[in-house]
Specification:
Blueprint lengths: L4 H4 L6 E3 L13 H10 L6 H16 L3 E5 L4 H12 L3 H6 L9 E5 L7 H5 L4 E5 L3 H4 L8 H7 L4 E7 L5 H11 L6 E4 L9 H7 L4 E5 L11 E5 L1 H9 L38 H16 L2 H17 L6 E4 L1 H4 L4 E5 L3 H9 L5 E3 L8 E4 L9 H12 L2
Parallel strand pairs: 1-11, 3-4, 3-5, 5-6, 6-7
Antiparallel strand pairs: 2-8, 7-8, 9-10, 10-12
Helix pairs in contact: 2-12, 3-12, 4-11
This protein binds pyridoxal-5'-phosphate.
Length: 392
């Protein structure tokens, strides 16, 4: 037995029935991924060459022209915004995050303005809100309309940002139809839109220029990994701003993804230098992505559903129902209707071991068991903790 690293740090292990949440450590990695990371840790490689190889794998599995491994999905919009503003202009790369001197505005529909908009702004870009949020607030039936996108585009516009979810893919097609002819890159945050695995390809098919996926959620890669994929020139401009660029002009041999001909010189460390992806994360993400792309969504959903039914059966008269993968747009979940969801969640988190359910629908009186990051051997302990907290 290996020593328990968390116990030696005095950190509690938690029963995670809340999903692949970043604050709970994301997904649990498969042995094959862990072994690949360990092997990667034992050799020196050129990180740029490794990212170029990553690009090949990401491209094959997503249909995108190119892709790089980032430090989580939240790093990807920062790099994407930087690339959209600078393209291959190294003077602009050197200026970031001071971007007032050039086109630095990113159009962001109000209905898509999430907490992750910070990641765009961190590049030096300025967010320009657009449209109304009638569909989001329930005040009306309309979301985004082509005329308002058209009217918002000015010479200061560098990109359009879109936060995709199971219900708004049609709007993405609208955005692309307006932005694409005007050469305005469309940056899509699809961090948590996997599974279904066809979403790996879907947003590129809809015409997105750059898409961010989290590597540490459903893909099952290292927690601190993500993917930025899309148009080859933009991905290359993002990569060169992420790499360690303390290189000598006489000896530096960048991979093809970095287009030396397009640059007036060799850029220094860029805005993304603090977002370095390590060799272990890059290799781990690629192995996890291969596994994810080869997996059978229907079979893994059926297995999850069987476990949720088993847990529900142990909860007696507590009103529960399974929300299917079709209904959630991702994976099946178990919904528990309870009297005081916040108090119950607090009580579960204070337990020994602490238990986490998803609080996404707490305002509607529902707590959710999302078993994506729940170890099957913890199913029984989860049911025990729920029975105890619910007094059943
Ligand atoms: C989780 C998430 C992110 C961030 O992903 P990380 O891999 O944790 O950086 C960004 N956007 C959305 C919508 C997310 O759900």
């Amino acid at each position: 037995m290996k020593p328990d690293v968390y116990a030696s740090l005095g950190v509690k292990r938690r029963i995670n029935a809340a999903g692949t949440l970043t604050r709970l450590g994301g997904a649990l990695m498969d042995e094959e991924v862990i072994a690949a990371m360990a092997a990667a840790a034992r050799a020196s490689v050129d990180i740029a060459e490794l990212q170029e190889a990553a690009s090949g794998t990401i491209s094959r599995l997503t249909g995108a022209q190119a892709g790089i491994v980032t430090t989580g999905a939240a790093a990807a919009p920062t790099l994407a915004a930087a690339a959209a503003m600078t393209r291959w202009d190294i003077a602009k790369m050197a200026a970031l995050p001071q971007a007032e001197g050039f086109a630095n505005e990113i159009l962001l529909p109000r209905i898509h303005h999430t907490g992750y908009a910070h990641a765009l702004r961190a590049s030096g870009a300025r967010i320009v809100d657009l449209g109304h949020n009638d569909r989001g607030t329930g005040a009306g039936v309309r979301g985004l309309e082509p005329w308002e996108i058209e009217a918002a585009i000015t010479p200061r516009t560098a990109a359009f940002a879109f936060s995709v979810n199971p219900g708004n893919a049609a709007d993405l097609a609208t955005v692309v139809s307006v932005c694409n002819p005007k050469n305005i890159p469309v940056i899509v945050d699809a961090a948590a839109q996997l599974p279904p695995k066809f979403n790996l390809r879907r947003f590129f098919e809809l015409g997105a220029d750059l898409v961010a996926f989290s590597g540490g959620k459903a893909i099952g890669g290292p927690q601190a990994s993500g993917i930025l994929a899309g148009r080859r020139d933009l991905v290359g401009a993002a990569l060169v701003q992420q790499l360690d660029m303390d290189v000598s002009p006489e000896t530096w041999a960048p991979p093809d993804l970095i287009d030396l001909k397009e640059m007036k010189g060799i850029p220094h460390h860029g805005l993304g230098r603090g977002f370095k992806a390590g060799k272990e994360e890059i290799v781990g993400l690629l192995v996890a992505l291969e596994r994810f792309a080869a997996a059978d969504d229907a079979a893994s959903n059926a297995a999850l559903e069987a476990r949720l039914e088993q847990i529900a059966r142990r909860l007696g008269d507590v009103p529960t129902r399974i929300a299917s993968a079709r209904e959630t747009g991702r994976v099946p979940q178990l919904h528990l209707t309870v009297e005081n969801p916040v108090a119950l969640s607090r009580c579960l988190q204070a337990g020994d071991p602490p238990v986490h359910l998803s609080e996404r629908f707490a305002a509607q009186g529902v707590l959710i068991v999302d078993a994506q990051a729940l170890r099957p051997e913890d199913d029984g302990a989860l049911a025990d903790a729920l029975r105890k907290a619910l007094n059943v």
